[in-house]
Amino acid sequence: MTANRTGFEPVFCTIVPPHILDKAARSGDPALSAPARRTLERDALERTRRRLTTVIGASAVAAPADAVEHKPHRTVYDAGHHTELPGTKVRGEGTEPGRDATVNRAYAGLGATFELYLEKFARDSIDGSGLPLTASVHFDNDYTNAFWNGEQMVFGDGDGEIFLDFTIPVDVIGHELTHGVTQYTANLTYFGQPGALNESISDVFGSLIKQYSLGQSAADADWLIGAGLLAPRVTGKALRSMKAPGTAYDDDVLGKDPQPADMDHFVQTSSDNGGVHINSGIPNHAFYLLAVALGGNAWERAGQIWYDVLTGGELAQDASFADFAKLTVKAARTRYKDGEELESVQKAWSQVGVPTQ
Fold it and tell me: Which of these, 162, 114, 120, 117, lies nearest to 135 by C-alpha position?
């Protein structure tokens, strides 16, 4: 396939999948159902706004005159539990931490994401050209999600019953900002298999950002997405598991994690844009298998191969899992010749049932 870069997809990306919020919204306990319903309504509105912004055109965001090249330019705003964005500026680049831990975590997470992309992939911010990184915290009341709206990050505080503060897991921040990287590169269509690839790429680099910030090897990492986000009453450990898709939670309110680990269990569904948050478990698992097979730090070889494909210009907007897999084989051969990287890539995709030929 030939990549098509005719224009950005009107993508509104949230970290919590609709199927989780749907389950919570059906709870008989208003303390659980009411925040989920309000969040679903708010997400629907923000999704519509994103489409309109794409049609009308967003304002260009430029770095300030005093910005330093190849350094982050972060701004964190407090939405004050309202929905108008961005809110009141509470922290700018280079200023000292304040008393609000949520603001400090958001600032640090923006920095961790910038650092991985710059230090390990020579990418200057998410657009490759020093794009300022903006985040708004304390969005709405009991808002149980975090999202990238095509221009900035937005974090809810959670409801305290099912979800805690969305700035707690750094991989959530990295995940959402990586949707921005995809937006500026492959611009994968947010539906079906290309949509699941879009979500998986965000999980992959969100996990790498977490591992890099913690100094973890592939063997040391927990490979969980959103660990620390679920409230104590929830029977689960995270939103997703790359190591063992389908095992992240099994809760009386949220149900059981529906992610498949291989193509034999691919989920056919019309919900969630064709299961983008569900079937992403398959390429997620392939990346995990590759990373642990190669050992060491996952961002070094496994991550490099994925980054080469994402930014190489050959990944079509409507790419299937097989299209992506074939390009990872090509990228491994180009960068590492016929070494263990090539064999490990082929084996990883074979283990999840995705062809590479």
Answer: 114
